[in-house]
Amino acid sequence: MTTAPDPAVVARLRAAGCVFAEDEAVLLGEAAASAAHLDGLVARRVAGEPLEQVLGWAEFCGLRFAVEPGVFVPRQRTRLLVREAVARAAPGAVVLDLCCGVGAVGAAVTAAVPSVELHAADLDPVAVRCARRNVSGSVYVGDLYDALPESLRGRVDVLVANAPYVPTDAIGLMPPEARDHEARAALDGGADGLDVQRRVAAAAPDWLAPGGALLIETGRQQAPGTVAACTSAGLTARVVEDDDLAATVVVAVREA
């Protein structure tokens, strides 16, 4: 049974511009151990911290993931990336979640496909600490493929990458929740947003198994550049879009 929101909390949240003030008030009330604790949680939210970081968890694909202050919060549009990965991952597949953040994509895939061998990696040690709580697989800290064991080379059936793809000059236009409270490295994709994607694509054939696929979340306007990066690496690429999620994914296959 849902607890009724505290009207005073609702008023504070609404005054701060929280669109779903009533729902947030309920969640914050459930998370608080005392009135003083609730006051502190509300103060953090009113100051602009993402609700998920305040609560300590985020919901994604029907699962709950631990998050800490400063980490990238999973976006609902990334469900398209999960959907495409699940469609390609047979039971027992080797799945690599690169730029994994808190591990939400890889964990969602393993929840949907039996016996997946999951590996995940991220540059941010705080995100990796969260991912190690969230996934039942091997999680490494380091810069892209440098973090991975050599034993994984040439074995990956599905490589998912939600690499940063916001152009540097556009970060200042992002909502304050993101630009002020998430790691810059999780957002900044360089001048055109594709710097990290190019690096991911260039080395992907070395790590993919024959017939394996690289799946990269990207922006709709950036998709041609993402495709070009993948084809330059020798992969066969196509674009998948979901208007309801406002999501775009490039699927690039290493031909057998």
What does this structure look like?
By secondary structure, the chain is an alpha/beta fold. Helix content is 36%, strand content 21%. The chain is built from ten helices and nine strands. The longest helix has 13 residues, at 195-207. The chain starts with 6 loop residues before the first helix and ends with a strand.
N- and C-termini, Cα separation? 53 Å
What is the ordering of alpha helices and beta strands? HHHHEEHEHEHEEHHEHEE
Number of helices: 10
Shape: globular
SSE-based structural type: alpha/beta
Biggest β-sheet description: 7 strands, mixed
Instruction: Extract low-pLDDT stretches.
Output: none
Number of strands: 9
Determine the strand fraction and express it as a percent band.
15-25%
Within the largest sheet, what's the order of strands? Answer: 5-4-3-6-7-9-8
What is the rounded Rg? Answer: 19 Å
Helix content: 25-40%
* Average pLDDT metric: 94
